Amino acid sequence: MLKLDKIIKTYNKGKNNAFEALHGISLTVESGEMVAIVGTSGAGKSTLLHILACIDGYDSGEYYIDDMVIGKLSEGKMADIRNEKIGMVMQDFALIEEFTALDNVMIPLDFAARGKKKGKKERKEIAIKMLEMVQMQNFADKPVNSLSGGQKQRVAIARAIVNEPSLILADEPTGALDTETTREIMKVFIDLNKQGKTIIIVTHDLTVAEQCSRVIKIEDGVIIEGN
Ligand SMILES: Nc1ncnc2c1ncn2[C@@H]1O[C@H](COP(=O)(O)OP(=O)(O)OP(=O)(O)O)[C@@H](O)[C@H]1O
Ligand SMILES: [Mg+2]
């Protein structure tokens, strides 16, 4: 279970360009839910997702994952949680452009304890299986900078799920995709959800939001619907 309790997040805190992006967000997401976060550009969706992903901190309030108080954890422990419990698809993909698709997908395996127990050959097999899930196996050896936007997005999804995280967060994962590819990608998320994973998707696409069991609407840093 994830729980946010009155989270406030300010960018450039203490400077004259300080900006409070989240004004006290309270939200509970049960394990196994599939949730959409919608809202206009600049509403605070990515900010919220980065906090949920333990990529960014917050000023006040508290974030709990399974009763663990995230704000109290050391940097090292946060990194362990990021690697082992959470898969994040960033809005800008955050892939290493010069690396191949396969090498990008293998990166989280090289860091997580799950990967360390495995030899290189086995890690490669796992990564290829992930690329198959998003139908990118034929592009495994292509450098990411030679792929289309939709192909990059699929590689980013494969990388996010390679450590079998229990929580998958995706920031506009279908933003650059056509209707058919959007359907395929949503099938991947729905299948993962059926396996019991908790999924949170930020989206502008109503057809994507409709496939989630709950829609949370955020406006100007406040949740106005769905919590
Ligand atoms: N690094 C930053 N420094 C300063 N302000 C920021 C930073 N990141 C975001 N903001 C501001 O915080 C607010 C929320 O941004 P956020 O990226 O969370 O919006 P969003 O809902 O994801 O928008 P979009 O749909 O365009 O991706 C915006 O007003 C934005 O300008
Ligand atoms: Mg965003």
TrEMBL record:
Keyword Secreted: no
Entry protein name: ABC transporter ATP-binding protein
Keywords: ATP-binding, Nucleotide-binding, Transport
PROSITE patterns (alphabetical): ABC_TRANSPORTER_1, ABC_TRANSPORTER_2
Species per Swiss-Prot/TrEMBL record: Butyribacter intestini
Keyword Secreted: no
Domain of life: Bacteria
Chain ranges of the ABC transporter domain: 2-227
GO CC terms, sorted: membrane protein complex; plasma membrane
MF term (GO), any: transmembrane transporter activity
